TrEMBL record:
InterPro entries: SCO1/SenC, Thioredoxin-like_sf. The keyword Transmembrane does not apply. It comes from Trichonephila clavata. This is Photosynthetic protein synthase II. It comes from the Eukaryota. One of its GO terms (molecular function) is metal ion binding. It holds the Pfam family SCO1-SenC.
Amino acid sequence: MQKNLPYEPWIISETLAKLDEKTNDKLQTFFITVDPERDSTERLKEFQQQFDHRIQMLTGEREKIDEVVAKYKVYASKVDGEEEINHSSIIYLIGHGGKYVTHFAADLNSDESQSDKILAEIRKYVN
């Protein structure tokens, strides 16, 4: 897949491992590629095997991906001369009917557990 795998699925996997059954049953998790030309469903299946099985890997037509990118204000740009894509690393919590609840930009320099921060917000929303 990529030389440097994104950290978002790792954080989400860690968060999902901490969920109680009641909360787990109320969530769906998705990873949406910003590079559908390279990330076929087969590649995403391989990628998914490295993370929690509950994370669904999604791809689609470039036009639809671009709509999601624009709606959620995601930065995505190809690195000159390489296959890699630079992109913003934001995790969104979306409620019923697609309503925005909050988002997380992981602070990888923090001593605070990023998954615990996300879990606290999920529990507030679910409860």
